[in-house]
Task: inverse folding
């Protein structure tokens, strides 16, 4: 009788408020239907780590976070890096992105923007940003190389924030015996006892104070020459110190040292990627341990610079390190691989989709001056004629392309249009490499499944730069190429 009383009461409410109730029910079921459609048709994220190609945030913008580090905080990964432009190497701010799986990144904010004036103001340099959480104060402390555009005013600076993704306050120089540390390429390391350390080029290692805001002692002095972009990690009581040679924005064969104490002695171990692969065309920036229930994967994080188009075309090379005792290696290049955050295990994975060979002119439309070079195993179509292009109409949710990079490689412009002809995505990719290599060059953001057109054209541009001594580096030509297209339905 009690339940019947409540039912009658509800019926009375419905009868006396019929128009409003009907509108409420209609709206409720419409909301459910729209939510169901959104779940059915909304794009899903990336399902692997892809190296050497531009990455995109969940809203389709390029991930710009170079010279980076990652902090895991409350179950989420925060990526801090240099935000770059395509026009200058001047400081453009330090960016922060977050992810729960290391595949899909959300832009949090510019956590340290260009300052109105001062050492990190306009037309200055800010590089190699690293963040550590100080266990004593609970603050997040950011470290960076500060300089002028001629690289003659270098020092290690720091900034602080009470929250990991908050706006950091620049505090100035990190002091040792009351003086700035006048070094440039730098890295940071937090040991398992939570003590913090500053690493600089040429093999210098400093211990931080308990609040991470000054240096208390220098543990290692000038261990080696060069050794830019330094990074340290530890496994089974052995410390590994990674670094690169000095070749400006060019890649080189990075090398490493080992020790059983941070004070040393440090033993040089040689290269950790095959000789003349130039560390799979990258430069060390950080090594992140992913500790799981079954294993620990040590994630090598490298930058593939692309001066001057550092925002559009500079990419990332993230690979799982192979570690055996005091030996580490990146024995081969993994274009795509998956990392289980829970177990700490990793595995290689295939890039999903239907592959379309570059000689399939029934599907691929070439415009301009192209050469097509078939051989027994594959084919490559190449052009360096400005505005020459190829295009393909496809139906699916993602499109990518494989091509060949070489010493004469240039920039390619990529656009994706919807069935109305509207441009929904554009990118610039770099096909320069000091040696000839064929790999995945582009993989679009996940699209709502539909009909699209991909167009790739020759920009007639390539990267060139010089180091402090005036030595010229970079490409000798503007070639772009196509091996095959991949469409994920």
Result:
């Amino acid at each position: 009788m009690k339940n019947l009383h409540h039912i009658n009461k509800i019926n009375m409410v419905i009868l006396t408020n019929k128009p409003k109730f009907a509108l409420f029910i209609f709206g409720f079921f419409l909301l459910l239907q729209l939510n169901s459609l959104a779940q059915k048709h909304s794009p899903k994220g990336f399902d692997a780590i892809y190296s050497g190609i531009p990455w995109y945030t969940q809203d389709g913008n390029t991930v710009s976070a170079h010279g980076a580090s990652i902090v895991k905080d409350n179950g989420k990964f925060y990526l801090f890096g240099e935000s770059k432009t395509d026009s200058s190497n001047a400081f453009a701010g330090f960016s922060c992105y977050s992810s729960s799986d290391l595949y899909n990144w959300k832009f949090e904010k510019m956590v340290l923007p260009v300052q109105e004036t001062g050492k990190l103001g306009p037309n200055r340099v800010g590089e190699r940003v690293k963040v550590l959480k100080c266990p004593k104060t609970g603050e997040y402390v950011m470290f960076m190389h500060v300089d002028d555009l001629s690289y003659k005013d270098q020092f290690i600076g720091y900034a602080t924030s009470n929250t990991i993704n908050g706006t950091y306050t620049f505090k100035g120089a990190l002091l040792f015996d009351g003086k700035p540390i006048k070094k440039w390429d730098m890295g940071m390391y937090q040991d398992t006892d939570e003590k913090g350390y500053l690493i600089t080029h040429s093999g210098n290692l400093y211990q931080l104070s308990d609040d991470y805001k000054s240096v208390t002692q220098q543990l290692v002095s000038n261990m080696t020459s060069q050794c830019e972009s330094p990074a340290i990690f530890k496994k089974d009581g052995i410390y590994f110190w990674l670094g690169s040679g000095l070749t400006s924005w060019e890649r080189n064969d990075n090398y490493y040292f080992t020790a059983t104490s941070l004070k040393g002695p440090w033993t040089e171990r040689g290269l950790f990627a095959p000789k003349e692969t130039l560390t799979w065309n990258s430069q060390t920036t950080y090594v992140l341990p992913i500790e799981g229930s079954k294993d620990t994967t040590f994630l090598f994080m490298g930058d593939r610079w692309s001066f001057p188009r550092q925002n559009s075309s500079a990419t990332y090379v993230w690979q799982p390190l192979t570690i055996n005792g005091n030996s580490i290696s990146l024995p081969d290049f993994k274009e795509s691989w998956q990392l289980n955050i829970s177990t700490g295990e990793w595995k290689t994975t295939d890039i999903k989709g239907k592959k379309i060979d570059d000689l399939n002119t029934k599907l691929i439309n070439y415009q301009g001056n192209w050469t097509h070079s078939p051989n027994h195993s594959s084919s490559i179509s190449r052009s360096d004629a400005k505005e020459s292009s190829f295009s393909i109409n496809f139906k699916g949710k993602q499109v990518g392309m494989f091509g060949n990079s070489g010493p004469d490689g240039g920039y390619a412009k990529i656009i994706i249009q919807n069935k109305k002809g509207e441009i929904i995505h554009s990118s610039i990719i770099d096909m320069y490499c000091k040696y000839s290599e064929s790999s995945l060059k582009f993989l679009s953001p996940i699209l709502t499944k539909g009909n699209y057109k991909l167009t790739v054209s020759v920009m007639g541009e390539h990267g060139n730069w010089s180091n402090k001594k005036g030595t010229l580096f970079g490409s000798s030509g503007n070639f772009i190429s196509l091996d095959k297209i991949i469409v994920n339905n």
Q: What stands out?
A: The radius of gyration is 26 Å. Helices lie at 2-16, 18-41, 278-281.
